[in-house]
Amino acid sequence: MGPWRCLLLLPLLAPALRAQQQQLMEYVERRLSLLEERISQWHDQSSRYSTELRDFKNQVLGMLEAAEKEREALRAEAEGAAVRVERLEREVDYLETQNPAPPCVEVDETLMDKQVATAKQRKNEKYTKLTDCSDTIASIRAMKILKRFGSASGLWTKDAAGSSEKIYVFDGTANDTVFVFPRMREFTLFSSTRKAARIKLPYPWVGTGHLVYDGHLYYIRQQGPSFQVIKFNLANKTVVDSSVFPAEEQIPVFGLSPSTYIEVSADEEGLWAVYATKEDEKNMCLAKLDPGSLDIEQMWDTPCPRENAESAFVVCGALHVVYNTRPPSRARVQCVFDVSGTLAPEDAALVYFPKRYGSHASLKYSPRERQLYAWDDGYQIIYRMEMKKKLEV
User: Fold this and answer.
1) Which of 7, 145, 370, 383 is deepest in the core (most CB within 10 A)?
2) How wide is the angle at C-alpha 321 spanned by C-alphas 319 and 324, nearest 5°?
3) Cα(371)–Cα(17) distance, integer angstroms
4) Residues 170, 156: contact at Cβ < 8 Å?
5) What is the spatial distance between Cα 71 and Cα 62, in angstroms, rounded to a whole number?
6) How far is CA 260 from the centre of its chain?
7) Regarding predicted confidence, which is higher, 26 or 87?
8) Are 356 and 381 in contact (CB under 8 A)?
9) Residue 163 has what DSSP assignment?
10) What is the 8-class DSSP label of residue 126?
11) In whole angstroms, how large is the CA radius of gyration of the chain?
12) 279-303: per-residue pLDDT in tens?
């Protein structure tokens, strides 16, 4: 076909080509419209999903906040229930002490007068020893500072007559809760009382002259001008007995410890009470106690002055009084009074304690361990003692 024929065909082919181009353009436009529609649908769905996710997130956060509030409410209810249970236990313990046949807290005046008269008949007599203990203190062999716990005044001790390893802690000079640690390790390692059991006493104590002896707590209660010795059973948490101390117009027994009116001590011979009255306000008095009935078996006027005294303890029937100065210095045993007369005055050693922090609020002698549990300005200290035989008069 020649060129001239092609030129003749062009006018005929042009409409067909334009029609094809038009169809192609329409196809492309349709495809683009579909694509745009799908993109629009995806965008709408994505926005809807984002909105739903945000709403779900807000819903979950609201549920979590509600759950947290409910948990806090439950914890508050649990704490409140624990407080109510503890209060109920204290009330039950108190009611147990108020059983139909409780020990008489108010001692019969006639009985007390009879006890006082009996004790005064034997006042200042030579004491007949119950044991063959013939030791006296030679020196302080060692000192161990365990920790610092509680207030400046208090006492800590073990059972002076038993084999229990429990540690009993009396924080302060006026309280009604005793902390009990199962062993020395728990008391030493933990600064708080979370490892300690608590004993709520039916009556608050006064001073630092209390004692744990043979499964019982002997503590001092003040009731008006008089003072009572309360015997409290540590096993069943009840008051076993109580007795008004048969001394009139009592005054603080130690010049440097004004809150202590009676110091209950234990040694190889049993229980003792150190006290002071206005009748002889310069010197201390000593009494032998019956641990079963709390009766006064015998009484003595001692030559040991109250002035500058900070604490006292009894070893083998001999009262040892510890003295200091008002600006705390080095404490020392400066007065020893042996009720049996088996310790020569010149044989009583002048024992010095190592320099510490302040003044002893309490010193508790352990006959089994031959050591002292001391409370010094909030520090708990153990003194191990060197003993020697008495040179009898």
Assistant:
1) 383
2) 175
3) 122
4) yes
5) 14
6) 20
7) 26
8) yes
9) -
10) P
11) 43
12) 888 999 999 999 999 999 999 999 9
Q: How far apart are CA 292 and CA 123, in angstroms?
A: 21
Beta strand pairing call for 371-376 and 379-389:
antiparallel
Yes or no: say if 127 and 339 are a contact pair by the CB < 8 Å rule: yes
Q: Which residues pair with 272 in a beta bridge?
A: 265, 288
Strands of the 351-352 sheet, one edge to the other: 309-315, 318-323, 332-338, 351-352
Using CB atoms within 10 A of its CB, is residue 176 exposed (0-12), middle (13-18) or buried (19+)? middle
Using DSSP's 3-state secondary structure scheme, residue 41 falls into helix
> Which tens digit of pLDDT belongs to each residue from 225-283?
899 999 999 999 999 999 999 888 999 999 999 999 999 999 999 999 999 999 888 99
Spatial contact of 175 and 151, defined as CB atoms under 8 Å apart: no
Percent share of the chain, pLDDT over 90 = 48
Hey, which residues does 250 pair with through a beta bridge? 277
Q: What distance in Å separates the CA atoms of residue 64 and residue 68, rounded to the nearest whole number?
A: 6
- Closest C-alpha among 331, 370, 329 to residue 350: 331
Residue whose token pair is 């201390």: 284
Say what the pLDDT of residue 376 is.
93
